[in-house]
Design goal:
With about 450 residues, the protein is an alpha+beta fold. The protein has 2 domains: about 1-200 and about 365-455, Aminopeptidase (3-Layer(aba) Sandwich); about 200-255 and about 300-365, Alpha-Beta Plaits. Helices cover about 35% and strands about 20% of the residues. The chain has helices spanning about 5-15, 20-30, 40-55, 120-140, 165-170, 225-240, 260-265, 270-280, 290-295, 335-350, 375-390, 405-410, 435-455; strands at about 60-65, 70-75, 85-90, 110, 115, 145-155, 180, 195, 195-200, 200-210, 215, 300-310, 320, 320-330, 355-365, 370, 395, 415, 435. Strands 1-2-6-3-7-18 form a 6-stranded mixed beta sheet, sandwiched between helices. Strands 12-14-10-15 form a 4-stranded antiparallel beta sheet. Strands 4-5-19 form a 3-stranded antiparallel beta sheet. Helix 2 packs across helix 4 (about 120-140) and helix 11 (about 375-390) crosses helix 13 (about 435-455). The chain is globular, with a radius of gyration of 24 Å. This is Acetylornithine deacetylase/Succinyl-diaminopimelate desuccinylase and related deacylases. Pfam families: M20_dimer, Peptidase_M20.
Length: about 450
């Protein structure tokens, strides 16, 4: 048996003895609500997390932003030449609708091998894995073979609105060789994953105002404007029935995938039945290449919510006075949410409608992409394989959105995401969960990454 294998077995044995402590550490975080959208418990959670990090032997402080504080930590040694910046967020989504939860969302409950509670997977279970891994390695060896820094924010669920200026103002403090995030679900059941970027986001709301009051659909039909119909007609000028976006220059700046990326996508495993089951569909009529191109490399145009008129039981024959639609667009690499928003403003201006239509910018995040061939990226992929005894699926980009552009664009360092949560974690939904096995494996994976980057295993 290789010395490196023996060394990692020693780490596995230590982590196995500490399972109870690791479980209670996560439970402590879950019990503290931290709902940034509702200003509920976020500051208390920041202070709790900072205390837990200090107890783990991490030099920690909370740093102010224009919103909720960043919890920053570091373990540095002058002999170490490489630094990893671990990113995560301690805020969570609102738990509503509460009636759909099978247990109190802020009282962790174990059922069928899973821990249920708001924030289990998104993102408390995944960020605390880094802290606990560092504690275990410090207890075992007294020092780390690389430097580690921690950047945990409290506004990711609000779009990380103050993260970019914080990073811009703290470049020296946050200097590192790579940013490492554990967030989101793995690509499949028991299938470790590594993602080398993420799609960006533009979120807008369109409002249409017709008459100053609802009108009788018979007495005023064909006379009073229908703002709901006007919004539907507007949206049909923005996207065609096949999903192609018709807004000026929408596709102009998309980064062309490399031949290496396309060849890699074609080699990825894909189980259409299992994927359909996770989504809640009976089947998916896509090939593996089509699926991953749509998920990782292509933008989207999505109606997230539409409201107008009467939607209760029975009938109410009215022409509604107002309507609104929320639209999110996931953006591919190099698309600029601000530029696209300006083009949408121009598009709406040229749309003739009896109603008055206004547009609100609700949020935007730039996409990011990290090359697959980088040596430090390949080392982390290998560390994930060592931890799981299984080769991870490597995706060129995450379908969802995170603020990873602050690392690639502002700090100018590569960034990757290694999801630790199970594929069916139900993040953002009632009964959010994280598998016990996945949680404990996450701690082990961070240990493997630190040790492999430090050439200890």
């Amino acid at each position: 048996m290789k010395k490196s294998t023996i060394e990692f077995e020693k780490v596995r044995e230590k982590l196995d003895k500490e399972k109870a402590f690791h479980m209670e550490s996560l439970f402590k975080l879950i019990r503290q609500p931290s709902i940034s959208a509702q200003n509920r418990g976020v500051l208390e959670c920041a202070n709790l997390l900072a205390t837990m990090m200090k107890d783990a032997g991490i030099d920690t402080k909370t740093l102010d932003t224009e919103g909720y504080p960043v919890v920053y930590g570091e373990v540095l040694h002058p002999d170490n030449k490489l630094t990893v910046l671990f990113y995560g967020h301690y805020d969570v989504q609102p738990p509503e609708p509460l009636e759909l939860w099978n247990s109190d969302p802020f009282e962790p409950t174990i059922h069928d091998g899973k821990i249920y509670g708001r924030g289990t997977g998104d993102n408390k279970g995944q960020l605390i894995a880094h802290v606990l891994a560092v504690k275990s390695l410090l207890d075992l060896y007294g020092k780390l073979p690389i430097n580690v820094k921690f950047l945990f924010e409290g506004e990711e669920e609000k779009g990380s609105i103050n993260l970019a200026p914080f990073v811009e103002n703290n470049k020296e403090l946050l200097a590192a060789n790579i940013a490492y995030t554990a967030d989101g679900p793995m690509e499949g059941k028991d299938q470790p994953s590594v993602t080398l970027g993420n799609r960006g986001l533009l979120y807008i709301e369109l409002k249409a105002q017709g008459a100053i009051k609802d009108n009788h659909s018979g007495n005023k039909g064909n006379i009073a404007p229908n703002p709901a119909m006007d919004l539907i007609n507007l949206i049909r000028t923005m996207v065609d029935p096949n999903g192609k976006v018709l807004i000026k220059d929408f596709y102009n700046d998309i980064l062309t995938p490399t031949g290496e990326e396309l060849d890699h996508i074609r080699s990825l495993p894909f189980d259409p039945e299992a994927t359909a089951n996770v989504i809640g569909m009976h089947k998916i009529g896509l090939s593996a290449e089509e699926y991953y191109k749509k998920l990782c490399l292509s933008p989207t145009f999505n109606i997230a919510g539409f409201g107008s008129g009467y939607t209760g039981e029975g009938t109410k024959t009215i022409i509604p006075s107002e309507a609104k639609v929320k639209i999110d667009m996931r953006l591919a690499a190099d698309q600029d949410p601000d530029l696209i928003f300006q083009n949408i403003i121009e598009h709406v201006k040229h749309f003739n409608s009896p109603s008055t239509i206004t547009i609100d910018y609700l949020g935007g995040v730039k996409p990011s992409r990290t090359p697959m061939h980088l040596d430090i990226v390949q080392k982390i992929i290998r560390a994930v394989e060592i931890s799981h005894n299984k080769m991870p699926v490597v995706l060129p980009a995450l379908g969802g959105t995170g603020p990873m552009y602050v690392f690639t664009d502002i700090l100018k360092i590569p960034s990757l995401t290694v999801p630790y949560a199970n594929v069916d974690e139900d993040n953002h939904a009632p009964n959010e969960n994280m598998g016990i096995k996945e949680y404990l494996n996450g701690i082990q994976t961070t240990c493997a990454a630190i040790l492999h980057l430090g050439e200890q295993i």
